[in-house]
Design the sequence.
């Protein structure tokens, strides 16, 4: 085997070294299925998710209503399918927002000591507040729209990104190539862009997957509590919130959205673990033959 082929083969070995091959592939397949379900929801769903039919209230599963109907006669399968859109949008918006805001702040805090002393006290203050309580307070004080929910979930997650990036910058800042760049008179912003920023890519990819999964779960919790996405937009959380009133009559109203939510979060976390094993330098040395 040539050196190039060997180096190409190593990441794939590391990706699957700490877990069964089929488990990682299964997680990817589930995520692909959920993404397809969200993108092609109008073609997959049997009915409009908000279409009311009082004559078909709380019907069990059938050939027409695959998951039954809710208390308003709406097709549960269609609502679960459309709910995937909300969850993926919220998760993606929170993860992207945290990275776009947290990475620059972490880079500046890691390099400039005076910024670090001020910024990290602010981050410590945000981390002292339970994230779910902070999100509830933000949504309760404003309109519970999609953008508000994304911001409310994103704000408590930003300090985690800032601290992660800051720690990576502090670790790389003491390296010889950074000292050489400083001695050559390279500007701090250029050092940050060329030498420090690339060192944060791997941990941020992994952290982004966990933020994505956590945001989906938090959105479902907020919607379940009645302070998340409004009832006019089906999400897995508000579907379960409406179904809990009729749990004794039809427990499937909660079971179906809950099982899809659980599979989605579990798959994202498994993918994040696999990416961590692949990208973490410590795991590279541990899994090397």
Sequence:
């Amino acid at each position: 085997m040539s050196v190039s082929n060997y180096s190409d083969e190593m990441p794939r070995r590391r990706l699957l070294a700490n877990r069964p091959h089929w488990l990682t592939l299964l997680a990817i397949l589930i995520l692909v299925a959920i993404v397809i379900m969200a993108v092609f929801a109008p073609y997959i769903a049997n009915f409009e998710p908000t279409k009311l039919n009082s004559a078909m209230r709380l019907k069990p599963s059938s050939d027409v209503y695959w998951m039954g109907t809710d208390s308003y006669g709406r097709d549960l399968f269609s609502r679960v399918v459309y709910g995937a859109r909300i969850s993926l949008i919220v998760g993606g918006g929170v993860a992207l927002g945290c990275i776009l805001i947290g990475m620059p702040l972490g880079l500046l805090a890691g390099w400039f000591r005076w910024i670090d002393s001020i910024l990290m006290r602010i981050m410590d203050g945000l981390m002292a507040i339970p994230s779910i309580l902070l999100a509830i307070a933000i949504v309760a004080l404003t309109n519970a729209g999609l953008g508000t929910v994304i911001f409310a979930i994103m704000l408590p997650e930003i300090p985690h990104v800032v601290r992660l990036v800051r720690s990576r910058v502090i670790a790389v800042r003491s390296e010889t190539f950074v000292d050489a760049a400083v001695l050559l008179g390279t500007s701090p912003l250029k050092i940050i862009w060329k030498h420090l920023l690339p060192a944060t890519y791997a941990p941020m990819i992994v952290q982004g997957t966990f933020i994505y999964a956590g945001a989906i779960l938090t959105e479902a919790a907020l919607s379940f509590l009645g302070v998340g996405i409004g009832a006019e937009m089906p999400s897995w959380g508000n579907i379960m919130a409406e179904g809990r009133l009729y749990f004794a009559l039809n427990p499937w109203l909660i079971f179906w959205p809950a099982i899809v939510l659980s599979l989605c979060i579990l798959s994202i976390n498994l993918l994040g673990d696999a990416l961590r094993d692949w990208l973490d330098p410590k795991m590279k040395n541990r899994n090397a033959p």
